[in-house]
Specification:
This protein has 117 residues and is an alpha+beta fold. Strands 2-1-3 form a 3-stranded antiparallel beta sheet.
Length: 117
């Protein structure tokens, strides 16, 4: 722009439009990031639900040696690590009552199985 002449009303309006356009573009980019973040969270939530639906009803978590049982879990318990193996109801009850395997303090399978002492 020529600095010899003063800004006209039209110049100021064009400048204001560029400012608003720039702000709107920044706000849209921010909204797009929020949407993408929410889509990622929702996809993760759906994945966790699918894992829970496909989880066995009961699980026994084994120690590092693979032989000693650490805990009995309700299927889908977040406390059950990768060393948990799906078992049937009878096996879970037997592990808790006869095997002396403790119940997971998070999911409380003994309560769910009805064998609370």
């Amino acid at each position: 722009m020529n600095e010899d002449r003063p800004l006209t009303r039209l110049d100021m309006l064009r400048f204001a439009r560029r400012v608003v356009e720039h702000q709107a573009a920044r706000q849209l980019a921010l909204m797009d990031r929020w949407i993408a973040d929410e889509e990622r969270r929702e996809a993760e939530r759906q994945r966790r639900l699918a894992v829970r639906r496909n989880a066995p009803e009961w699980a026994v978590e084994h120690g590092l040696n693979g032989r000693s049982a650490l805990y009995v879990h309700v299927g889908g318990c977040t406390g059950a690590r990768g060393r948990a193996k799906g078992v049937g109801r009878e096996q879970a009850v037997r592990a808790l009552t006869e095997g002396g395997v403790p119940a997971c303090p998070l999911c409380r399978p003994d309560t769910a199985l009805g064998i609370v002492e």
